[in-house]
Design a protein that fits this description.
With 148 residues, the chain is mainly beta. The protein has one domain: Immunoglobulin-like. It has one helix at residues 2-18, and strands spanning 32-40, 44-47, 65-71, 78-81, 84-85, 88-95, 101-103, 110-118, 125-132, 140-147.
């Protein structure tokens, strides 16, 4: 009888430990994508205002960089300049209690990404960025900017 009691206790412990699940919030859907700034040797950093359709400065020369903010989680961005693929990197951004977006540190919730794209010798043209949410409502968001 004593062995059966110990075995039953072991089963209860195993069930209790196995029943624990990690609780996590679902990933937020995409709510915003926009070009933040364009950077080049000839113009320095040009901040891009919401709704701005083209750069004010003539960004010429090599190493033109475009910074894009994506708020929410996408499946995989589609990026190009006049239809040609553009490569880049992304860095997670987090929101603090005051609502400002900033680079993430351990323990903070990622709310989106800042992408940095290098035009790699390409200069003038229409830059496009689009992505689709990984979850409901599955919306697609996009932005574009003419780089002159």
């Amino acid at each position: 009888m004593k062995k059966r009691g110990i075995a039953a206790f072991g089963v209860l412990i195993a069930l209790f430990l196995g029943a624990q699940t990690a609780l996590a919030a679902s990933a937020p859907p995409l709510s915003q994508v926009n070009v933040l700034k364009v950077e080049s040797r000839g113009c320095g950093v040009e901040n891009i205002a919401p709704g701005q359709e083209q750069t004010r400065c003539n960004h010429t020369g090599p190493n033109i960089k475009i910074y894009v903010l994506e708020v929410g989680y996408g499946k995989g961005a589609h990026v190009g300049l006049d239809g040609f693929a553009v490569s880049g990197t992304r860095t997670p951004v987090c929101a603090f209690d005051n609502g400002n977006l900033t680079a993430c540190i351990a323990g903070r919730k990622t709310v989106g990404y800042v992408y940095v794209f290098d035009l790699a010798g390409k200069q003038e043209g229409t830059f496009t960025f689009s992505d689709t949410s990984i979850n409901v409502p599955g919306n697609t968001m996009s932005t574009q900017l003419y780089i002159k």
